[in-house]
Amino acid sequence: MKRNLLILTTSQALGMAAAPMIVLIGGIIGQELSPDVSKSTLPIAAMVVGGAACSAPAALLMGRVGRRNGFMAGSLLSLISSLVAYHAITISSFPLFCLGTFGIGANMAFIQQYRFAAVESVTSDLVGRAVSFVLLGGIVAAFLGPEIAKHTRDFIVAKPYAGSFIALAGLSSLNILILSLLKFPPSLTDQTRGPGHTGRKLSEIISQPLFITAILSGLVAYAGMTLIMTATPVSMRLIDGYSLGDTAWVIQSHVMAMFIPSLFSGLLIDRIGLRRVMLGGIVLMATCGIIAQINHQLIHYWLGLVMLGVGWNFLFVGGTALLTRSYRPAERFRAQGVNDLIVYSGQAAASFLAGALIFTSGWQFVNLIILPMLLVITVVIFKMGAVINHK
Known about the structure:
The chain has one domain (2-179, 201-387): MFS general substrate transporter like domains (Growth Hormone, Chain: A, Up-down Bundle), CATH 1.20.1250. It is built from 19 helices and no strands. It has helices spanning 2-16, 18-33, 42-65, 67-90, 94-111, 114-119, 127-135, 137-151, 162-179, 186-190, 202-206, 209-239, 244-259, 265-272, 274-291, 298-324, 332-360, 363-368, 370-384. Helix 15 runs antiparallel to helix 19. The two termini are 22 Å apart. Residues 189-196 have low confidence and may be disordered.
């Protein structure tokens, strides 16, 4: 199944490139197309909402048609939505542009399932490493997305950034071809079908303390990270007046920091334990909030966003590893669907809040909001104690 891991990692790199690209330019395009500056980050929020709204349907669809066909369907949706976003820019339609980013975000719901497909490709003792390996694709995405935005910005001179979405459509087309090479054993599909293979009731699955801890970890990691990341380009470019190059550098560094730790986070979990890795992630995310209180200089933006990215990786990988322990094979699509629905709904809410908060309350306040969330998950992790480290 090493073949599957390589395919999933490559597809992660191509598919995830859309996220940093839209984070970088979505608010800038939104400010140009929207009559209300406070709604400038709405296209980014629409992308996140698309992921949240489609998280459960994506998991259920794959339960019926299989991982490979489901992943290919997600990439096809991204292709079509990229062309919609391109057309929206050419006719200066803000609602249509938001619809396009919503569809691109819907594919993110399928991409988030790559990590679960990776888990199904390895033995139980390699779960943490498999998740980390697939997330390595995000390192490439961190470069690819912003670079596409920068180099295709003036492809259509009269409509800046329209060409970026043509390029994005090309990446989606390539991803469909790559994903078609995936192969899973028939036994994985058979586990979810037939009498006696329905698993426990959903209420029984989600009421487990381990399941709740996993969901809260993912929710805090994604909501806290998204709130700050979404506000960053607006704060840097539109409020503090930094160049697009400086803003892109910070976003690229942040996304790289989200995924580079995947080179060692799986091994780190094996070495020092899952609980310590998750707590380390919380400390790093809190450090980002503290750095933001010092100043608005470029180095403070950069350092804070790097700390945020590494912290997200530790907490999110930890939450994913916990989640896989809370369900049986026949229950995986329902459990994963519920987890992603809750986690990405929180992410969607954070992305909606980012635009309004950055203009009304400022950069320091946006960063302070994550501290209470981090305190809550810290208490939960300490309460779970050794259960988290038990394999």
